[in-house]
Amino acid sequence: MKIVRSFPHAVREIEHTEIPMPDGCRLAARIWMPEGAEDAPVPAILEYLPYRKNDFTAERDATMQPYLAGHGYAVVRLDLRGAGDSEGVMPDEYLPQELQDGVDAISWIADQPWCDGNLGMIGISWGGFNGLQVAALQPPALKAIVTLCSTDDRYADDVHYMGGCLLGEQLSWASIMFGRNTLPPDPRHVGERWREMWKERLKGSGLWLKNWLEHQTRDEFWKHGSVCEDWSKIQIPVYAVSGWPDGYCRAVFRLMENLQGPRKGLVGPWAHRYPHIGEPGPAIGFLQEELRWWDHWLKGKDTGIMDEPMLRLYRMNSAEPAGHYEVREGAWIAEPSWPSPNVERAEFRLGADHSLSREATAPDGVLEHSTPLDVGMASGKWCGYSKPGDAPLDKRRDDAGSLTFETAPLEDPLDIAGDAQVVLELSVDRPVAQLAVRIGDVHPDGRSTRVTFGVLNLTHRDSHEHPEPLEPGKRYRVTVPMKHVAQRFRPGHRLRLAISTNYFPMIWPAPEKVTISVHTEGSRLVLPLRPPVPEDDALPAFEAPEAAPPLEKEVLEAPEEYWQIVEDARTGEMEMRLAEGGGRVRIAGNELTTYSQGYESYRVRPGDITSAVGDVRWHYALERGDWKMRSETETTLTADATHFIVKARARAWENDDLVHDESWDERIPRQLV
After folding, report:
1. b/e map of 454-468 (b: 16 or more CB within 10 Å)?
2. Measured distance CA(324)–CA(381) in Å, rounded
3. What pLDDT is stored for residue 361 in this prediction?
4. Cα 502 to Cα 671: distance, rounded to the nearest angstrom
5. Is 332 within a domain?
6. In this predicted structure, what is the pLDDT of residue 589?
7. How many other CB atoms are found less than 10 A from the CB of residue 85?
8. Strand order in the sheet with 434-442
9. I need a surface site. Which of 13, 69, 313, 600 has the fewest CB within 10 A?
10. pLDDT digits (tens, 9 = 90+) for 545-595
11. pLDDT over 70 percentage in the chain
12. What CATH number should be reported for the domain holding residue 126?
């Protein structure tokens, strides 16, 4: 990473200002702009997040926002209502109030003397979501967006549900926000109001996990904020970015396929991170790429960015299985559009002898299978952050407990790019069942690296909005889509398709243990084959990563970090447990000390499908001089055959005085999940 300390423009920073909303609520912003922008207005770029502009995003912002400001933009980091130093309460994500606040903030920014009236929005994850959502509301000053690691479909592709299955990530993410919502505004910025604002949000934030579990189908709750409901509402240019280990890469392809205005897509080897700090590498000069986009759409400069292919993808090569990669070997490829004229779909038949072949000679038959409950413990995170341990491990143990089909060793390299899918002719013995399907890259020594996967709640086989129970013994044809990926399989390697009836903790187990009967006749794996094309060799290279100087900070205590899979030899219980956090850090300049530490545990006992348990705890603290606060949150998710059961507690202290203690004990009926 090259650190840039000199820019075309000197940068002025406003650490805290407040933007008034029409209802009187004031939202807190941090602004970087070129010196003299009041006399020579510039375009503005808005990033709109709940993650606290002056502490929890301060380190990241320091390397990005001055860089953009130094190249002639006013950059506004805005805290959502009820978060950071903003007034109000935030009872859930992407609510209509949040989106209207975004529209009103854009109007305010456009009217400032330092803004020339043209705005862009950028954001990763939450900020990528609301960038799309606000764009669909068409505020006049918003001219283009960059959306990273986001989704167009809040039900199909977010941390909540996948294929109608409940993701374990829902508990993880709900618990993170449960903890962060206990944090107060900073007295340095809001003065003596901080305590009243803090108590209001402690009482008003609620238990988001309960909200989400009460909506297990694709109802109006999830349709709100899903821009795929009406693509035509987004009429401005969109640059969509993701990475293969990220949970959101599928949205890039749908945006390229369905948006009608100018658009570009980029999917790299990275996890849920900005590409200039992308890991697994190679990282790219994304801040320079971003400037090319803004200069074209906000300043009217011909940067050549729109003359390049619509979609660039990083085609990864075979890699040994590992819980973490620093770099993935591969090469950049490009597509003129999506769907791509370069991709051909090829069918591989499933044989009763467990073969996987393009030939029509594989024997037909019926294969019965029921998966052990520990299959999935090596699955890693649904949304990878490139933290050691969160990538899937060697899949041999999971594959041994699954129904598998395998090709002969490849004679030539085999490239895929896009979304594979599995079509199965099957019957089941229970009214509620689910499938997890995975493609593995099997090395000559037998190790297996997961390349992509998909899951499907079979009661959602025809509709995520109106699921229907299965009729035991009845034969169905179902299609299970997988995540998009670009991958090269080496000669001598084999492709393995693995099918399981559970995949915990990636997805929550079905109410009862299930046996499936797969009829191999008519069952097939459909791969998006993509041979090399000459245009790939002519692609311009991305620049090397650059950033502004890092935040000055002092690490007082490193976070506790581990990722373990533990087997109890006495009971057979399997547990995935991990620790992560930010540790204890003092931020230079504002003398604020922050602390965060989280622990997650997911465990299941053999033979008892309702024994699955998820536990998450988070500890947060803020401190400056005599001002101190800390909080602890605990969330436990279990289920029986008919209900999800949530037990949670949130406590917060000012100095040593307990100021908030609230508990929940909720039973939410299962709706064919």
Report:
1. bbbbbbbbeebeebe
2. 11
3. 82
4. 17
5. no
6. 87
7. 27
8. 403-406, 494-500, 434-442, 448-457
9. 13
10. 999 999 999 999 999 999 999 999 999 999 999 999 999 999 998 899 999
11. 100
12. 3.40.50
Q: Any idea how long the chain is?
A: 673
Alpha-helical (H) ranges within 277-393 are 286-298
Q: Is residue 336 part of a domain?
A: no
Q: Identify whether the C-beta of residue 446 lies closer than 8 Å to the C-beta of residue 475.
A: no
Give the total number of structural domains in the chain. Answer: 2
As to burial, measured by CB atoms within 10 angstroms (0-12 exposed, 13-18 middle, 19+ buried), residue 96 is exposed
Cβ-contact 424, 477 below 8 angstroms: yes
Residues 78, 61: Cα–Cα separation, whole Å: 12
- The answer to whether the beta carbons of residues 640 and 611 sit under 8 Å apart is no
Which of 492, 518, 535 is the last residue before a domain boundary?
Answer: 535
The CATH number linked to 493 is 2.60.120.260
pTM of the entire predicted model: 0.97
Please list the alpha-helical segments (H only) found in 263-418. 286-298, 396-400
Name the token pair of 212: 């989400």
- The CB density around residue 341, as the number of other CB atoms within 10 Å, is 10
Which residue bears the tokens 């090319």?
Answer: 292
**Confidence band (pLDDT; 50, 70, 90) for 457?**
very high
Residue 198 token pair? 């803090």
Helix or strand or coil: residue 668?
strand
Task: Tell me which H or E stretch contains 645.
Answer: strand 643-654
* Distance from C-alpha of 85 to C-alpha of 139, rounded to nearest angstrom: 25
Domain end (from 535, 556, 575): 535
- State the virtual CA torsion across 147, 153, 154, 158 in degrees, nearest 10: -70
Range of the structural domain that residue 355 is part of? 344-535
CA 395 – CA 405 distance, rounded (Å): 14
| 539 contact partners, CB below 8 Å, separation of at least 6 | 309, 312, 332, 333, 334
Residue 418 has pLDDT above 90, yes or no: yes
Q: What are 316's two structure tokens?
A: 């990864």
The beta strand positions in 254-310, using DSSP E, are: 263-268
- What percent of the chain clears pLDDT 90, i.e. is strictly above it? 98
Dihedral pair phi/psi, residue 177, rounded to 5°: -70, -30
H or E segment to which residue 177 belongs: helix 168-180
How far is the C-alpha of 274 from the C-alpha of 243, rounded, in Å?
A: 9
Q: Judge contact between 249 and 158, C-beta under 8 A.
A: no
